[in-house]
Amino acid sequence: MASAATVVRRALLYVPGSSQRMLDKSRGLVVDCVAYDLEDSVTLGRKAEARTNIRKMLGQPRSPGIREQAVRINAVDSGLALVDLTEVLKAPNLDTIVVPKVNSASDLHFVTDVIRHTLPSRPSDDSTVGPSRFRPIKIMALIESAKALQSISSICTASPLLDGLIFAAEDFALDLSLTRTPSLTEFLFARSAITTACRAYDLPSAIDLVCTAYKGEEGKRTLEEECLGGRGLGFNGKQLIHPSQVEVAQKAFAPGQKEIEWAVRVVIADEKAAEAGRGAWTLDGKMIDAPVVGKAKATVKRAEDCGLDVGTVRVEWSKQQPE
User: Fold this and answer.
1) Do 29 and 243 form a contact (C-beta atoms < 8 A)?
2) I need a labelling partner for 278 at 20 to 30 A (CA). Which of 68, 161, 257, 268 fits?
3) Closest by alpha carbon to 246, among 3, 59, 25?
4) For the chain, how big is the Rg over CA atoms in Å?
5) How far is Cα 204 from Cα 148, in angstroms, rounded to an integer?
6) Is 90 exceeded by the pLDDT of residue 106?
């Protein structure tokens, strides 16, 4: 299981591996994670072409705007996963493997074994990186079925390369014969179970369902609402299917300016309260204790990890005192 190190995946954008035009266009994006796709967006007759396209893409110099380059392979039980992995693991700039339809720990055992056999010199986790320029290949697991949800504990402990879970709502709805509604209440149990498991097993990323609406102002509003709802359930990123969704998602899953200001004020005041031996104090009439301080510190770190300007806010509130 991976340690919850500094990982930011506010947006995970799928790009079809069979479209050279879309692959080329993706290199100009500013996005946390691009997942080049070999699964749902690629027809069976174009899988081989897509593998070659993606391997070549990941052999090019890294694009400065993309933090993480991932590949979504085909499901282990499809019979295509091994050939997918054999091809894409040749690429020097691959960071993460996204594994769809993970129903049990054995799916991740298979992928982990292939990675270790193919790339024995790559470390198994961040603690063993040392002077090597190569970082460990990460794994993200898609939860798409009732069986996966019931096996979530064993899935979370199946591989030291596992770095997070992704909720695939459409396949989950198909498996349970659910109808997706705008409220998304039919997915509340599954989504809560996934975010809780990520926290319980120290997995850095919990990535929420795809927003299928992306055109026009109505699509933008729907996306914003889904992002805020997902964040409220504990997700820290969202799957995307169109580049126009990136800016909205990355803003929604980053702390806002007022959040940052409040968090910085709490952290600065707490440092001064600690010097004075005060364990609990108030700020703007609200009681501040250890859990509140912990959340404030997490917010400041999240803002820094997202590349937001926290330093200026620290200077502005440097004289903040505990009340």
Assistant:
1) yes
2) 257
3) 25
4) 21
5) 19
6) yes
Backbone angles phi, psi at 16, to 5 degrees: -60, 130
Please return the burial class of 4, using the count of CB atoms within 10 Å of its CB with bins 0-12, 13-18 and 19+. Answer: middle
Listing DSSP states for 30-84 in one string gives -EEEEEEESSTTS-GGGHHHHHHHHHHHTTSPPPTTEEEEEEE---GGGT-HHHH
Q: Which residues contact 242 (CB under 8 A, 6 or more apart)?
A: 214
On whether the CB atoms of residues 139 and 159 are closer than 8 A, the answer is yes
Question: For residue 213, which phi and psi values (nearest 5 degrees)?
Answer: -95, 125
pLDDT category at 134 given cuts 50, 70, 90 is: low
Neighbours of 81 (CB within 10 A): 22
Whether pLDDT at 33 is above 50: yes
Per-residue model confidence (pLDDT) at position 5: 46
- Lowest-pLDDT range of 1-5, 75-79, 211-215, 241-245: 1-5
Q: Which residues contact residue 76 at a Cβ distance below 8 angstroms, ignoring those fewer than 6 apart?
A: 99, 101, 102, 106, 107, 110, 111
The burial class, CB within 10 Å (0-12 / 13-18 / 19+), for 206 is buried
Number of residues that this document lists for the chain: 323
Of the candidates 68, 61, 75, the residue with the CA atom closest to the CA atom of residue 35: 68
3 state DSSP class of 137: coil
Per-residue pLDDT tens over the stretch 260-298: 999 999 999 999 998 888 878 999 999 999 999 999 999
Query: Could you read off the pLDDT of 149-187 as tens digits, one per residue?
Result: 999 999 999 999 999 999 999 999 999 999 999 999 999
Tokens of 167: 């909720």
* CA end-to-end distance (rounded Å), the chain: 42
Beta bridge partners of 15: 36
CA distances to 104, 257, 275, 276, 281 from 34, rounded to whole Å, are 25, 26, 45, 48, 44
